[in-house]
Hints:
The protein has helices at residues 10-13, 17-28, 33-40, 44-56, 75-86, 89-112, and strands at 60-65, 68-73. The protein is mainly alpha-helical. It has a domain at 10-84: Winged helix-like DNA-binding domain superfamily/Winged helix DNA-binding domain (Arc Repressor Mutant, subunit A), CATH 1.10.10.10. Strands 1-2 form a two-stranded antiparallel sheet. β1 (60-65) and β2 form a beta hairpin. α3 packs across α4 (44-56). The longest helix is centred in the C-terminal third of the chain and has 24 residues, at 89-112.
Amino acid sequence: MPRAATTSDAFNAVGDPCRRAILSLLASDEQGVTAIGANLGLEQPSVSKHLRVLKDVGLVRVRRDGRQMLYRTNAEVIKPIHEWTSKFERFWQHQLKRIKERAESQTVLQDKE
């Protein structure tokens, strides 16, 4: 099965670490391109490119405030990604519980020595 284009599929769009960082940043507050670049240490052309992909798939919304364009996350489109990834939460919780139990048993053994 051919892979969907990054610009048409939200799952592929979030596959890029820079785009995930942008989404994380915008989850708390809307920001312009310059602020996003400054916060993430990215150049403006790179930020603009990533924002275009995120906007094209609907993961971010944009509004004009005077001459500035402000971006924010679009929770409605992110929700299916969250729902899909949450299916794996049980697996990770189980793995973390096993790691914790193993570490605690190692500590008990060391204390007995």
